[in-house]
Design a protein that fits this description.
The chain has about 325 residues and is α/β, with parallel strands linked by helices. It folds into two domains: about 200 residues, TIM Barrel (Alpha-Beta Barrel); about 80 residues, no CATH class. The protein contains 14 helices and eleven strands. It has an eight-stranded parallel sheet. α3 links the parallel β2 and β3. α2 packs parallel to α3 and α3 runs parallel beside α4. The longest helix has 20 residues. The radius of gyration is 18 Å and the shape is globular. The chain starts with a helix and ends with a helix.
């Protein structure tokens, strides 16, 4: 399959494995790249030197293109960007910040820059900043999210109408059928996160992976909009957050409850009670843990079969 996303990243299939915190280490990213898609390391949960270690290991594990996802709200951003340049990473996905801050700086060093947005307004700002492509992410997505709660199938055609750079759809995509739907609506490719959480190569704790398999419709909720909107599996920590809201909470009280390392506790260490369990709504249709290669093969096979079937209608 050849299109703008495939050509931009020199990959076989127009799929990006999302760079998720505590899930997207070198094993996942290299396995994704070796499967013909673009693997991303999740820098948001890595100290700078830990990121360097993952980049080095990823380069040893694959000779295919891979990139780094950098949430710009995290500390040590300058050190992270310097390491990306020093280690000769050629693709960076930025999120949670102003794309003007780093886009030209990275591009001047020969790096392809993609920015993640959740609205038409921010898509236009990203294009004006000169990014090479845009990820438009609907509120079905896991992890940090947009405040406007615009769904992926609504967001993609609206963004497509306004921008000229390649468009990558994200949020609620775990199957070939969903991939095809997004591309029919104008996306040049898709970014998939939650499905790769439930992969053998994800660095998430096995307890969290199994919890994802148990998720049903309504088991996740977008919350903590006053801090940074995040979609969580419902557990004791989530219930504690809701209890504060019911009492009429303040931002300070939310910060105190959140504390530090909640996401690490939940996703990486497997504390299903007190941890922050970030996952998308699409977890409700995920019921197996598979190797990345098999996940990609399943998605592409379903995409092609569905596309062929539709052509005969």
């Amino acid at each position: 399959m050849s299109n703008r996303v495939v050509d931009l990243f020199s990959i076989k299939h127009p799929i990006i494995q999302a760079g998720m915190v505590w899930n997207s280490g070198w094993r996942l990213a290299s396995a994704a790249s070796n499967s013909g898609i673009l693997g991303l390391l999740g820098a948001g949960s890595m100290y700078p030197e830990v990121l360097r270690e993952h980049i080095i290991k990823c380069k040893k594990a694959t000779n295919k293109p891979f990139g780094v996802n950098v949430p710009m709200l995290y500390p040590d951003i300058e050190k992270i960007m310097d390491i990306i340049v020093e280690e000769n990473v050629k693709i960076v996905f930025t999120s949670a910040g102003n794309p003007k801050t780093w886009t030209k700086w990275l591009q001047d060093k020969g790096i392809t820059v993609v920015h993640v947005v959740s609205s038409v307004k921010f898509a236009l700002k990203a294009e004006a900043a000169g990014v090479d492509a845009i990820v438009a992410e609907g509120f079905e997505a896991g992890g940090h999210n947009g405040r406007d709660e615009t769904t992926t199938l609504t967001l993609i055609p609206m963004v497509k109408e306004k921008i000229k750079v390649p468009l990558i759809a994200a949020g609620g995509i775990a199957t070939g059928k969903a991939m095809l739907a997004c591309m029919v609506l104008g996306a040049d490719g898709v970014q998939i996160g939650s499905r790769f959480v439930a992969s053998e190569e994800s660095s998430a704790h096995s307890a969290f992976k199994n919890k994802v398999l148990e998720a049903k419709e309504g088991d996740t909720q977008l919350t903590l909009k006053e801090l940074a909107p995040v979609r969580l599996l419902k557990n004791k920590f989530y219930n504690d957050v809701q209890e504060l809201y019911n009492k009429g909470t303040t931002v300070e009280e939310l910060k105190i409850l959140l504390g530090r390392a909640r996401a690490k506790k939940g996703m990486f260490e497997g504390d299903l009670v007190e941890g922050e369990l970030e996952i998308g709504q699409v977890s409700g249709v995920i019921d197996t843990i598979k190797p990345v290669q098999v996940i990609v093969e399943d998605i592409i096979a379903e995409f092609n079969a569905t596309k062929a079937n539709i052509q005969h209608i």
